[in-house]
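Running this now, will post back.
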Amino acid sequence: MENLVEQLTERREIEPTSSKSAWEKVRTARDNNRPQSMEIINNIFTGFFELYGDRNYSNDSSIVGGLAWLKDVPVTVIGQQKGIDLPDRLKRNFGMTNPEGYRKSLRLVKQAEKFKRPVICFVDTPGAFCGVEAEKKGQAYAIANNLHELFGVKTPIVTVVLGEGGSGGALALSVCDKLYMFENSVFSVITPEGCASILWKDAKLAREAAEKLRLTAADLYEAGFVDDIIREPEDFTRDNMIDTCAQLKELLYADIRKLSKLNAEALIKNRQNKYLGM
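Update: finished.
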């Protein structure tokens, strides 16, 4: 068991990623043509069957989730979806999740735990929705409850940051056994614009804030927060994602097979130690 844990936690030396600046990577992560969760899900998994609602208030379309097959392994898949065109983006609230979305994701995780299915999450959000209604419905509690519950889930969890990983809105799906980031994705406590507005009272200084936040995949891998970086084509769009999805599929499958060999106690202990170490 100890040897398996060592294999799961060992880190490889990575070559420098793309030469883009932090701000350029933020812009790339937000690009409308960048693949989103549903495109990735449809290219990696088979038999995806979407499930809806939090069994409490309503369904949040910014979170898509359900059952699928990763090769011969039944899994639960959860992803944040920003939307493709304007009507779709309005329907999905531009990927900004409400409390019912986080309750929905936790419901699916708990269901996966009950039936011993691994969980795979895809993160892509500028942040949790911060409107008055979201606060009335318990936004902070919903996110905090996800964080608390995910630490004790007795089934493997793997999270992949596709584009933006914004603040607690992303962290609510990122307590996991393995965390990966695409090469030009970003993960930060706040957007560069928000950071610049707070620190310097000028959102136009977002470029400078992006550099200071150390939010790129390379920065976070170096700091030990991310387990590995997924390489992208030079122009990573929906039109040229097939090869990258194939590589990600093999990576996820290998991880799930290894993580599933750990008993529940070792899995939880390893996950908790991962975050205590941060």
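Residues 19-276 form a domain with the 2-enoyl-CoA Hydratase; Chain A, domain 1 fold (CATH 3.90.226.10). More later if anyone needs it.
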